[in-house]
Amino acid sequence: MGLIEERYTDGSYLAANPDWDRQDAPWKAERVHRLLSDFQIRPTSICEVGCGAGDVLVHLHRHIPQAEYYGYDISPQAATFWEGHKNLPQRMHLQLGDFHVLNQIHYDVLLMLDVFEHVRDPFTFLEKSRAFASHFVFHIPLDLSASAILRGRLMATRSIAGHIHYYTKDTALATLKDCGYKVMECRYTGASLNSPTRSLKTRLAAIPRRVLFAINKDLGVRALGGETLLVLAQASGEDVPCR
After folding, report:
1. Distance in angstroms (rounded) separating the CA atoms of residues 208 and 243
2. Of 14, 48, 204, 217, which residue is 20 to 30 A from 104 by alpha carbon distance?
């Protein structure tokens, strides 16, 4: 394990993110559930790679109670949050360690929510993950925008959020395609306008964002940023046009 990964095992990431983004968990779970429902996917097994504090799985369980839930994370600090979820039925299994080393199960749905932008080699990571599920849901921060570059925000994203790769919608989708995924659906989440953890600056920027997004959403996101992408995919095959 190198220096990049050590921030998740030595407490550095927790120090910079003491709540481990737990406030966003209900919001993310609702959007994942809506995406699966739109495609009439009724999973009986769901795994989240990089599950962090486990809160997304907790909230997703409330939407899809019949599924068996699994979560993996390499951070011992993230695992300290898991004790608070022990009141759930025995349908949730959270494990500390490397998913690709420990996992021996094939899932109906594999979640990677804000994950591969943290990984040293996202291409190998994504390629290795392809064999473990029938469907995949990705939540991808779109950090790369004209505004972020002009304001020098990428280094803050790197030091605080731990993102070491930065994406636009086009480069995120190209990465998935290059790694052998068929995109079934992709949609903006509206994070800059409705996520629970928006900063004051993000709230103040809501008006120009709404105006530019209404004119041309892709252009607005490339210019002003603040958005995230939710993607439903399968392994291999031809992708579909993304809205």
Report:
1. 21
2. 14
